[in-house]
Amino acid sequence: MASTQAIRKAKGKIKPPRKHGPDTSIQDTWASLSHAIKEIQNERAHQLSFEENYRYAYNLVLFRQGDFLYRNVKSLITENLSNLTEEYIIPAFATGNHEDPVTRGQEGEVLMKGVRKVWDKHNSSMRKLSDILKYMDRVYTVSAEVPQIIPAGLKIFIDDVLHRTTAPVQEQVVNAILGQVQVERDGYSINQTAVKECVDIYLQLEDNSGRQLYFSDIEPAFLGETRKFYVQEAQKLLGTCDAAEYLRRVEQRFDAEEMRSYYYLSASTATAVRAIVEANLLSPHLQTIISMPESGLDVMIDLNRIDDLNRIYRLFFQFSASTGGPQALRKGLKESIISRGRAINESNDASNTEVNAPEEDGEKEKSGKAKGKTPAPVQTLNLALKWVQDAVDLKDRFDSILKSAFQGDRTCELAISEALGSFINQNPRAPEFVSLFIDENLKKGLKGKTDDEIEQVLDKTITLFRFLTDKDTFERYYKTHLARRLLFNRSVSDDAERGMLAKLKVECGVQFTKKMEGMFNDMKLSSDIVTAYRDYLSNTTAPAVEINVTVMTSTFWPTTNSGATCTLPIQLQQACSSFERFYNTRHSGRRLTWQPALGNADVKVQFKAKRHDLNVTTMAI
Predict the structure, then answer these.
(1) Which of 5-14, 42-51, 121-130, 582-591 has the highest mean pLDDT?
(2) DSSP label of 557
(3) Distance (Å, rounded) from C-alpha 233 to C-alpha 247?
(4) Is the model's pLDDT at 8 over the cut of 50?
């Protein structure tokens, strides 16, 4: 009968591995451990006992067999790497019999994948070996001053795989990498991941000096081939591309090389590659690119190719900053502006009109000129308006290019300003033309314009004024034109007049505009004097002719001493005497000098049956 008492189950025990001692054969221990190492290298580590194999290595070190263990493990690693090389790498060597770049690329890809496979298998087995050889690494390698097993394995990989003396592995691998780069440069697709994984091996390995193997085995060869490629590329592109297309190709090369360096080579290579591309595609050909016929800088500006101009700016300033790129672009800009300015000066040539000081109203053209011929003053005005407008348009065009294509670069702005100033001052009549332009706009050119539009016109004119070196001549013309506008009441807007005066004061200071401000003050005082004079006439006998007098301070106003005498009609003489008597009652010690050349009169005339109202100069009465 079965007992109801619970049957106690026996507990399992883990038996420790058999203790190795002096009586245990070293050869037997090594035989067992070496078998385990080979199983690990053959990727059958799951069948092994970690504790047992750790004990084998532990005992060998413990009983002073560390050197024996270390040397034999390295031997097994060397043997395994030799077998892997012969299995995966050597059969994948390129034959060199294929002209097709795609086929060559495929051959190189197979070889790089073979190298990577050997590397991955080696690393996988070394990590497991390191686990069972921890005691050896901790004790023996320290006392013997030798590398631990993983660094030792890496050294073996370099010597017996990459730098193998019995087969040109290194040469084949480098050629495969360079071949892939060339295939990609030629416009074909490659397996970038395969290249990256192969290059990464060289980046992880170090030579005896601690320098990454990439910088001795791959980079020098890569840079050498890159230099050869771009010497040929420059000649090919110069022979087949216009300036815009050449710059696009150069930019694409810069971008592609940078991407290549960062993605599957080394980021530190990017700087050297960029220098090679710049030294071959850009710096020797800066002037050639700018001056290419029918496509260079001038054509880009003519056609307003902002993208192309922005590209030339980026390439010249970013990549050729130290080899003359910025200087070449600034020089090209200045030459372009000066050439266009010279054309403006020539198209507005005033050689057939006299270069005289400003004529006062009242001085007439001599009669007898051919019928239908434009009078010289009108010709001069038309030339002035067209020249100033052309100059303003030229500046506006380059200001737009500066902002949209050259990113507002200060050095380019300075070059543009220097060139504009040069061509403007090459025209000896520039001060006169600028003053005439302002005069015409303040007389009638601003009619119907808003305040913002008026301000814009005045600002553009002041911009040209800044370029003038002979500001004294401009002042002389401007004062004469201002006097005419004030005396003959021709200004469109008093606010515009004062706004222009304020801008000139900002540019040149108070002394420059002091006399002009005095002219405005005289006009205001004269208005008060005429009002008082009319009140005076209401209490006395008024002359037969009504006059409106402007009292000018002689030091403020430009006057003309032509030497011509003017005999006024008796009625006007009486009116002038009446005003003088009134004026002397208010101001003692002042002397009035009449300037008939600066006056005008409204006259009613009758020719046969028709009557006419004429406005003539005082001299014409």
Answers:
(1) 121-130
(2) S
(3) 13
(4) no
Six token digits for residue 184: 């990609």
Whole-angstrom Cα distance, residue 69 to residue 64? 10
Q: How many CB atoms lie within 10 A of CB 243?
A: 23
Q: Judge contact between 617 and 597, C-beta under 8 A.
A: yes
Separation of alpha carbons 618 and 607, rounded Å: 20
Rounded CA-CA distance 536/550 in Å is 17
Contacts of 395 (CB under 8 A, 6+ apart): 420, 460, 463, 464
CA distances from 592 to 263, 485, 566, 595, 597 (A): 90, 22, 16, 10, 15
SS3 17: coil
Contact indicator for 522, 550 with CB cutoff of 8 Å: yes
How many residues comprise the chain? 621
- The whole-model pTM stands at 0.76
Helices (H), 405-469: 410-426, 430-440, 451-467
CB-CB contact of 157 with 122 (8 Å) = yes
Check: CB of residue 423 under 8 Å from CB of residue 464: no
Q: Residue 370: which residues within 8 A CB-CB, separation 6 or more?
A: none
- Two tokens at 564? 């011509």
Contact indicator for 181, 269 with CB cutoff of 8 Å: no
CA dihedral 330, 331, 332, 337 (to 10 degrees): 90
Q: Are strands 610-617 and 600-607 parallel, antiparallel or unpaired?
A: antiparallel
